[in-house]
Amino acid sequence: MKKPEKELTTEQKIKRRNFISFTVFGAYVAAAYGGWRWLYKSPDETASVTAGAHKPLRQALNKTELFFRRLTFNENHLVKTYPREMAAKKIRHNSDIGSAGKLPPENWKLQVKKANGETLQITLDELMKLPKTEITYDFKCVEGWDQISHWEGVSFRDFIKHYNLDAEAKMSYVGLETPDKQYYVGIDMPSAIHPQTLLAYQMNDELLNGQHGQPLRLIIPVKYGIKNLKRIGTIAFSNTRPRDYWAEQGYDYYSGL
Amino acid sequence: MKAIKEKHPLVMRWTHWVNFPILTIMIWSGMLIYWANDEYSITLFGHTYVRFFPDWYYQWLHIPQRLAEGMAFHFLFMWFFALNGFFYVLYTIISGEWRQLVPNRHSFKEAWLVLLHDLHIRKTAPPQDKYNAAQRIAYTAIIIMGFGSLVTGLAIYKPVQFNWLCWICGGYHLARIWHFVLTIGYVLFFLVHVVQVILAGWNNFRSVVSGFEVVNEQPKPAIENNNEDEKA
């Protein structure tokens, strides 16, 4: 028969509990450190539409995107607008990949690739005949700065309606590229047809100049600046994610606000 | 006579030690993000006292040119930071531990006496339970700060979808400033916290790992029970 266990002295209890606690604590520290090294050293994702991020982190970004898209995105959530006079006179210029130098409107036509294979060729004059939409809002850069700016153009919704692109608008994504294909973005359809998304040709009452995407650019207030493509050359629609310049450099594909 | 005195419950110890590396990663990845638009400084009457951050500091910690990486880490660990925090708060409320933690009506007066005592200006410290008045204020404030980081963080992260949060924070611009200031607050808290832990000694530190402190108890008359509640 087993002898009844002798009750431990206080000293023994202290030793025993210390031993257990610190063993578990040590194991936890080792596991946390190991887990961190694993994540930090984890290989980059296989380059596809997205690239340049650690594989597990990219998976997390995509999952988090879905979470927030489903939970929070609503076309009725509008970006805050400001009185016209609050708009900056000098608009900050960060980058002109794919849109450097000048491209006078007469040398340009917007190419819209329809689902049936047809390509629409649209001049700026034609676009300017459509109803004009203005917005003064706080433009937000992924770097962390923001600037209130004023834009005028055709709302993407009006554009879709006018050119009978309803079938295309039922697809999941819009891809926009500069004429030289140097810069390109992919936008999920709900964000593209958000009521505040513009194909902008004017900034502070002047036609866009060389630095800001002459002659037509995307203004999409529900996205960071990196998605606001300057100098649109082509617009195409698809059910898979179109290529995206910054998503290939490790940034979140969605980049929604 | 040596005796075991229970101090920190298991959940509190775990959430504390889980939070430490997560918050460290959040601060680090936050710096990778902040670097891309590092516009903050402490400037008074035209003189800049501190610039966040000097070049040598960025170089030392290999901060530059890692914005995308910083965002990827930040938007993963934010989940763990939030979940761990919510779990801690939930536990503190349900277990009743909050009574030991939340400042009471004496705390704000007593905290000064604690401070004077800690600075060796005053000989005696006010009587305390688990935490003294200054700790109650500091440990409650840090939880509120954590909540503040979540709110300001969400406001910057989804300023259109959570435009009401952004509005509460005073706008996008101000939300980013609050988010940054709170982080500086954590760093300052950490510095004081570590110094205090070192000064408090091994018995105190061990209690955050093993849960108990070893106290010297005078043998007591048999009639008195061991109730910790001082009001008994």
Biggest β-sheet: strands ordered side by side in the sheet of chain B: 1-4
Order of helices and strands of chain A: HHEEHEEHHEEHEEEE
Helix content range of the residues of chain A, please? 25-40%
Oligomer: heterodimer
CATH architecture of the largest domain in chain A, please? Alpha-Beta Complex
Query: What is the rounded Rg of chain B?
Result: 21 Å
CATH topology of chain B: Fumarate Reductase Cytochrome B subunit
Percentage of residues in helical conformation of chain B: 55-70%
Largest sheet of chain A: 5 strands, mixed
CATH topology of the largest domain in chain A: the name is Sulfite Oxidase, Chain A, domain 2
Determine the number of helices of chain A (DSSP H or I, runs of at least 4 residues).
6
* Count of individual domains of chain A: 2
Largest interface, C-beta within 8 A: A-B, 46 and 38 residues
Strand tally of chain B:
4
Strand order of the largest sheet of chain A: 2-1-10-5-6
- What letter string, H or E per element, gives the SSE order of chain B? EHEEHHHHHHHHE
The number of strands of chain A is 10
Q: Note poorly predicted spans of chain A.
A: none
